[in-house]
Amino acid sequence: MPLIAAGSLLSGCPQRTQYTSPKGIEKGTTGGFGNARPKPTKVGLVTDIAGVNDKSFNAMAALGLERVRTELKLPVKIIESRQNADYVNNLSQLARAGYEVVFAVGFLMRQATNDVAARFPDTTFIIIDAESPTLSNCAGIQYREEEGCFLVGYLGALMSTTGVLGFVGGLDVPLIKKYEVAYQAGAIHARKDVEIRVGYAGSFDDPQKGQEIAKLQLSTKADVIFHAAGKTGIGVIKAIAASPKGNYAIGTDRNQDGDAPGRVLTSLVKRVDLAVFESVDALVKGTFTPGSITKGLKEKWIDLTDFAYTKDAIGPDRLAKLDACRKEILAGTIRPPMTQVQFDAYVKASDKS
């Protein structure tokens, strides 16, 4: 999908970067949302430390906010965080400035969102990738990432000539662990002899580290590497692009296929843009309900790309197998694991079959 360059909307501020939509900003499918919060007149968003130019998670959120500005005609503002310690201040700044809706982009902001939302009950806070705080002015948007991760693992194993896949995570936390184990399960579903190399960078904002881990995995025969690492994943794609043909990266969050055409097998697209836009649209229409919501393949909030650069390399037979696998997930025949315990049980069951 095309991505509007968020950098073109930025202007200076006391934080790292901040953008404001033109004129009037300083004045104070809806899927599953119900009623009860005031209609917004302006909307704010706080990114994590990777910022809107991460070509990943935050960039998708910024794209959704741009739709709010252009389609709903609401003034919008983004504040980028320099460090985790900025989250409380940045969320508070938007609430104090009269932004009726404030998005917190990323699970690392859950505690900050809870703390700030308690102090600003008239502001609606929506956190992406975390459960909603138990406050009436909060919502939490989560995804069934395991469904898409299973599919990319399945496709990666079908494409691998060495039988060795790689995985590069940002932080070793439950959310990213879910990506890892579902990816591994999908690979095992395709071929039981597959090996998986796993590495964590310890950061979502370190492309150099991502490149180093990917190079190490390539040196140990991995020929398909999936990243769930935010901006760190840029380094994974760079390492693949510099390696021999036949090696592939798998992107995450936004469509990264064009970042290295023909070398990114597919991307697991996480529609953070839809979450942002549809939440505000529901508030405008008066159909928003606080609380947690989770969506996945069925609702197309999680999906793979259209293989614009790799369809011929994948071929019709593999694509047909991938489609059959997708249908099994949607039917509930395949239940991708989300934790290490579930993955271990999956492997045991797979060994018996």
List keywords for this structure.
Rossmann fold, alpha/beta, globular, single chain, six-stranded mixed β-sheet, disordered N terminus, 353 residues, 2 domains, seven-stranded mixed β-sheet, 10 helices
Report on this model:
The structure is a single chain. The chain is α/β, with parallel strands linked by helices and 353 residues long. It has 2 domains: 6-144 and 272-295, Rossmann fold, CATH 3.40.50; 145-271 and 302-352, 3-Layer(aba) Sandwich (Rossmann fold). Helix content is 39%, strand content 19%. It has 10 helices and 13 strands. The chain has helices spanning 57-71, 87-96, 110-119, 145-159, 174-190, 207-219, 233-241, 272-285, 311-331, 340-352, and strands spanning 17-20, 43-46, 76-80, 101-105, 124-128, 138-143, 164-169, 195-200, 224-228, 248-253, 264-270, 291-295, 302-304. It has a 7-stranded mixed sheet with strand order 1-3-2-4-5-6-12, sandwiched between helices. The protein starts with 16 loop residues before the first strand and ends with a helix. Mean pLDDT is 89; it is low at 1-35.
